[in-house]
Amino acid sequence: MKPRVFLVDDHRLFLSGVKAELAGAFEIVGDASDVDTAISGIRRLDPDVVLIDVHMPDGGGVAVIEAVTDTNPGVRFLALSVSDKAEDVIAMIRAGARGYVTKTIEPAELAEAIQRVHDGDAVFSPRLAGFVLDAFAGGGPVVDDDLDQLTAREKDVLRLIARGFAYKQVARKLDISIKTVETHVSSVLRKLQLSNRHELARWASKRRIV
Amino acid sequence: MRFKRRSSDRMIAGVAGGLADALGVGAPFVRAAFLTLASIWGLGLVLYVALWLYAYEEVGDGEPKHLDSTQKAGLAMCFAGAMWCFEILGWWPHPALVITVATLAFGTAALIDRAGSGTVAVLFDPGAGAAGRVRVAMGVLLVVVGVTVFATTVGPLFEANVVVMISAILITALGVALGFGPMVRRLVADLARERNERIRQEERAEMAAHLHDSVLQTLALIQRTDDLSRISMLARHQEQELRDWLFGTAPAPDADLMSTALRQAARRVEDDYQVPVDVVVVGDRPLDDPGRSLVAAASEAMVNAAKHSGAARISLYFETEDDGVSIYVTDQGKGFDAGTIPLDRRGIADSIVGRVRKVGGTATITSAPGEGTEVHLRLPVEA
């Protein structure tokens, strides 16, 4: 059975374009171009994956994720945006999105990313990997809690992703399995979602992005 | 240097407030100085208007200056000295008038400076600092001196009952405030509204000009282009440029940072070879001469990848570590066998390696047929 995908984007042109690209590999169960319609649609249809735009009026993607997390805990979110701003990326991840890709992504890569999120893994674009490395590194102990530190292996994985390698290539370069790469990335995602709000805020303000 | 008038928290035109921010002293004291000068044949008024014309209006929030107490004392002495000079030159209309205005104005200033925390209440607040108490005590003293001087000199001068005279002045002032207050307030509100409207219009004009120069030009260019890859490149560039402008992520033109130089190099390659370059930056450092060599080498590596790899996109990754900086230029293109590099490409490889070695760095080129190519440039740097 094809994964059931719900699309949320306030640009209808973009919405129809993505729909056409994904129609073969996924069952597009519905779409919405504003926050309220998205929330009611997702609650009603309970899709597997929601491909969601970050910037929308009335709270954006974060508002949608927060509204349906409790009612539909099984829904997984992949954030999609034109924005390169670190604060947007981090905000979506912290709200619960399992990955973040920019709208310039190739259709095949987008399909792969949706599949990966559907399988419960995290999707890190090179840019997101760079943001995370930046957030957890530099300027000494930015994150003091043991839980929040990235392991050396996780940093290795993120560095390779930031350098533009696909998970498969990362696995081969580090001589580990793809499954292990996915485990590392998911663990980074979890740390990003759990890490101390205050420390991340300080990092963000240092970079003048809040 | 021109100072900025305050656009908020001001009495008339924000001249005194702006001057206070520029000098690093409390606004009430600057206002007191203007009042005192005004008692000398209106000198303060003339000065105020002159400065009003000279100053420009504050846009955004400027960082107020902070002076230590010695510097503040210096400023106070400058003012007192200047006043004394006026007195010696015989410019004072009447000593009593100037002294009265000065003591009352500065006394009041001392009492109301840092309104809220610095009022008379400080005297009764056990938690207040000694400096605050001294300031308030000085204020009270000054006001008392002012009233006394007024009562003993100005009163007899006009042979009038001082209490009656002060009452008359107060009643007149109250009447003026009640009678003309609403009018003045309306006038000020109108002026503020007009100013806001003007600012909005200027912003709109600036935005229109920017969009015309950038987005509209690009759209026009796209309509005249048949080449698909060129269209997507134009769109990509415009998108990046517009985003920089909207979100303010554009680097300052004089920002000499490694990341800035690398992004510029990446954009040049995109322009020249129509291949997108994904730039990811972790950390940053100022651009020095070795850094420039590294950027130049990275630029060569990107050109190399764009020309020979056949890859759809190139990745540029820059990272600062404790003991050095690294740049990776990666492509997923056709790659090559290190033993069979064509002569012209060997030349480029040599120029990359040579350039980096000359500044004490290393360059490693990893590639195999069908495996893509990665160039790793590393420069050891002392922390």
Describe this structure in words.
The complex is a heterodimer of chains A (210) and B (383). Chain A has 210 residues and is an alpha/beta fold. Helices cover 52% and strands 13% of the residues of chain A. Chain A is built from 10 helices and 6 strands, in the order βαβαβαβαβαβααααα. In chain A, strands 2-1-3-4-5-6 form a 6-stranded parallel sheet, with helices on both faces. Mean pLDDT of chain A is 83; it is low at 139-144. With 383 residues, chain B is of the alpha/beta class. Chain B has 11 helices and 7 strands. In chain B, α1 (15-23) packs across α2, α5 packs antiparallel against α6 (130-158) and α10 (289-309) runs antiparallel to α11. Chains A and B meet through α6 of A and α8, β3, β4 and β5 of B.
Summarize the structure.
The complex is a heterodimer of chains A (210) and B (383). By secondary structure, chain A is α/β, with parallel strands linked by helices.
The outline of chain A comes out as globular
The top-level CATH class of the largest domain in chain A is Alpha Beta
Number of helices in the DSSP assignment of chain A:
10
Q: Beta fraction of the residues of chain B? A: 5-15%
CATH topology-level fold name of the largest domain in chain A: Rossmann fold
Oligomeric state: heterodimer
